[in-house]
TrEMBL record:
This is Small ribosomal subunit protein uS13. HAMAP family: Ribosomal_uS13 (MF_01315). Keywords: Ribonucleoprotein, Ribosomal protein, RNA-binding, rRNA-binding, tRNA-binding. GO terms for biological process: translation. Residues 95-122 are annotated as: Disordered. PROSITE patterns: RIBOSOMAL_S13_1 (PS00646), RIBOSOMAL_S13_2 (PS50159).
Length: 122
């Protein structure tokens, strides 16, 4: 099992798909990495040599912010907005949708399970 950026990537999957298991690498970046290193995207991780895995690891470390650093950066950005007390920060603080979605109905992912209001009968 290959370990890249602190993540065990699956060995029986294609390289492009396996790289997407790393937080911060999606389809476009995975294709870009394999193209830059001239690794055929249809090859499986188990078919890669140790040298190729090392090349992938070095390319990711040099060019991309992934895993823990990316998560830390995202959380620091959200914390900064909350400290500024700007509109987006207040929405984060209250646990409501941040990007202008409606909240009269829906928004259950952000708001959590519906709470009944006592004494509200029609």
């Amino acid at each position: 099992m290959a370990r890249i950026a602190g993540v065990n990537i699956p060995t029986n999957k294609r390289v492009v798909i396996a790289l997407q298991y790393i937080h911060g690498i999606g389809a476009a970046k995975a294709k870009e990495i394999t193209a830059k290193l001239e690794i055929a995207p249809e090859r499986r991780v188990q078919d890669l040599s140790d040298q190729e895995v090392l090349q992938i690891r070095e390319a990711i470390d040099a060019s991309y912010t992934v895993e823990g650093d990316l998560r830390r950066q995202t959380s620091m950005n959200i914390k900064r907005l909350m400290d500024l007390a700007c509109y987006r920060g207040l929405r984060h603080r209250k646990g409501l949708p941040v990007r202008g979605q409606r909240t009269h109905t829906n928004a259950r992912t952000r708001k959590g399970k519906a709470k009944p209001i006592a004494g509200k009968k029609k």
